[in-house]
Write a structure and sequence with these properties.
- Its cofactor is NAD(+).
- GO terms for molecular function: 3-dehydroquinate synthase activity.
- It comes from Methylobacterium currus.
- InterPro entries: Dehydroquinate_synthase, DHQS/DOIS_N, DHQS_C.
- This protein folds into two domains: about 180 residues, Rossmann fold (3-Layer(aba) Sandwich), CATH 3.40.50; about 150 residues, Dehydroquinate synthase-like - alpha domain (Dehydroquinate synthase-like, alpha domain, Up-down Bundle).
- By secondary structure, the chain is of the alpha/beta class.
- The strands form three sheets. A seven-stranded mixed β-sheet has the order 1-2-9-6-5-3-4, sandwiched between helices. A three-stranded antiparallel β-sheet has the order 10-11-12. Strands 7-8 form a two-stranded antiparallel sheet.
- Helix 5 runs parallel beside helix 8 and helix 6 packs across helix 8.
- A hairpin with a 5-residue loop joins strand 10 and strand 11.
- The protein starts with 15 loop residues before the first strand and ends in a 5-residue tail after the last strand.
- The protein has 14 helices and twelve strands.
Length: about 400
C-alpha cells in the first residue's frame, strides 16, 4: 500500500483510477471546481438519460444539475433517506425511465448521497436487465465508501440493505466541492468510514485524520484544503484497492472493509434510523476496538486513541441500544451473510488485522466486558499467542503501526 505523502502542499491527482477484474472495469474521476458536473457531459452525450437527485441537492446545486437537462424532463427529484430506501423508490425511477423511453443504451445518473446511489444502482440493474449508470456522490460517505463499489440495495422488512444487486457503475465522479454545503453531522459520519479504512489499511492516513479532521468538519472542508483533498482521495483509493480484490464478494468472505459493519446494521435498524449509518459504524468500531483490547490484540492506548478520535469528531461510541442480545444477534446475522462465519475484523497492534471466525469465541462474558470498557476503559495488552488460542486468521494489510 502506497504511503500517503506529507500533507503540506498536497495536490490530489486529477486523474482516473481503474477498478478492474476479470468481468468489468470502471473509472473514478477526481474533479475540482464548481463546474464539476460538466465532466459528465461526455459520458451522456447522445445517450438517453435520466438524472436522479435529491431535494437537498436540487436546492443547493439545482443550477448545475439543470445543466445536464435544461428542459427538466430528465431530472427526477427523489426523497432519498434511509427510511425511504425502499423498493417503491426503485420502482419510481424505473417508471420514469419507462415514460422517457430509455433504451438499452440509456444511462441513469445518481447525483446525491449513498441512498440515492443505492436506489439508482438497483434501478439500473433492473431496467432492460441492466443499463449503465453513473454516480456523483455529493456526501462524504458517498465519496469515500458508498458511491465506489458495485452494490446497490434497499431496506426490507426491518433489515438494512437486504434486497440488492451487484451492478458496477460506468463512471464515478468525486467532486470535493460538494462537501462545502454538507451539514456537519453528515461530514462526521463520513469521517467514520474514513477512520474505518485508515485503521485497517493505512496508519499514515489515520495520523492525517487525527491531525486535521476536526478542523475540516469545522470549516466544511475549506481548510486545510490540501489535507482535506488528500484524505478524500486516499480513502477512496484504499477502498477501491480493497474492493477490486473481491468486487462481487464471491472469492471469500474475509473483507477488511467489513470492519465497523458487524454490529452496526442491526444497531442502525434498532434506532429506526435515528442513528445514521456512519454513527452506527462509529459505535461498532468502538466496541470492536474494546473487544480487541479485551483479547489482548491491541493495547488500551490504541483503543483509547480511536475512541478519543471518534469522540472529538462528535461521533457516538456507545448506545443504550447496543445490548448483549443485539450483539449476539448481529454476529448470527453476520455469519448468515459471510459464508457461515461472522468474520469479525479485529485490529491488532503487532501485525495484520485478524478475522474472528468462530461465533462462540465472542461469548456473553467477552461482549459484556467490551461494553463496559466503552464507558470505563481498562485492560492490558496480550501477545501474539492470543491469535493461536482464538484461531484468528490474518488479513493481508497492516493496521496500527506507531503514530
Amino acid at each position: 500500500m502506497a504511503a500517503l505523502p506529507h500533507d503540506v502542499g498536497l495536490t490530489p491527482p486529477r486523474s482516473h483510477v481503474a477498478a478492474a477484474n476479470r468481468r468489468t472495469a470502471y473509472e473514478v474521476v477526481f474533479q475540482e471546481g464548481a463546474s464539476a458536473l460538466l465532466a459528465l457531459r461526455p459520458w451522456i452525450a447522445g445517450q438517453d438519460h435520466l438524472v436522479v437527485t435529491t431535494p437537498t441537492v436540487q436546492a443547493l446545486h439545482g443550477g448545475a444539475v439543470a445543466g445536464l437537462d435544461p428542459t427538466g424532463r430528465r431530472i427526477l427529484v427523489l426523497d432519498c433517506t434511509e427510511a425511504s430506501k425502499t423498493l417503491q423508490q426503485v420502482e419510481r425511477v424505473c417508471r420514469r425511465a419507462h415514460e422517457l423511453g430509455l433504451s438499452r443504451g440509456g444511462v441513469l445518473l445518481a447525483v446525491g448521497g449513498g441512498v440515492c446511489s443505492d436506489i439508482t444502482t438497483l434501478a439500473a440493474s433492473w431496467l432492460r436487465r441492466g443499463i449503465r449508470h453513473v454516480r456523483v456522490p455529493t456526501t462524504l460517505v458517498g465519496q469515500v465508501d458508498a458511491g465506489l463499489g458495485y452494490k446497490g440495495a434497499v431496506n426490507f422488512d426491518g433489515h438494512k440493505s437486504y434486497l440488492g444487486c451487484f451492478h458496477a457503475p460506468a463512471h464515478v465522479l468525486i467532486a470535493p466541492d460538494f462537501l462545502r454545503t454538507l451539514p456537519a453531522r453528515h461530514q462526521r459520519e463520513g469521517f467514520a468510514e474514513i477512520v474505518k479504512i485508515a485503521i485497517v489499511c493505512d496508519p499514515d492516513l489515520l495520523n492525517l485524520v487525527d491531525r486535521h479532521a476536526e478542523e475540516l468538519v469545522r470549516t466544511s472542508f475549506a481548510a486545510p484544503r490540501a489535507a482535506g483533498r488528500a484524505i478524500v482521495w486516499q480513502s477512496a483509493l484504499l477502498m477501491l484497492r480493497e474492493l477490486e480484490q473481491n468486487p462481487y464478494e464471491d472469492q471469500g468472505y474475509e473483507r477488511l472493509v467489513d470492519f465497523g459493519h458487524t454490529f452496526s446494521p442491526l444497531l442502525e435498524a434498532a434506532s429506526a434510523h435515528r442513528l445514521s449509518h456512519g454513527e452506527a459504524v462509529a459505535i461498532d468500531m468502538a466496541l470492536t476496538m474494546a473487544l480487541s483490547a479485551e483479547l489482548g490484540l491491541v493495547a488500551p492506548a490504541s483503543r483509547d486513541r480511536i475512541l478519543s478520535l471518534l469522540r472529538r469528531l462528535g461521533l457516538p461510541t456507545d448506545s443504550p441500544l447496543l445490548t448483549p442480545e443485539l450483539c449476539r444477534h448481529a454476529l448470527e446475522q453476520a455469519a448468515l451473510h459471510r459464508g457461515g462465519r461472522p468474520n469479525l475484523v479485529l485490529p491488532t497492534d503487532f501485525g495484520p488485522s485478524r478475522f474472528l471466525q468462530a461465533a462462540d469465541a465472542v461469548g456473553p462474558d467477552l461482549i459484556a466486558r467490551g461494553l463496559r470498557a466503552l464507558a470505563h476503559p481498562a485492560g492490558t495488552v496480550g501477545s501474539g499467542a492470543t491469535l493461536a488460542r482464538l484461531g484468528l486468521r490474518a488479513a493481508g494489510s497492516l493496521t496500527m503501526a506507531g503514530s
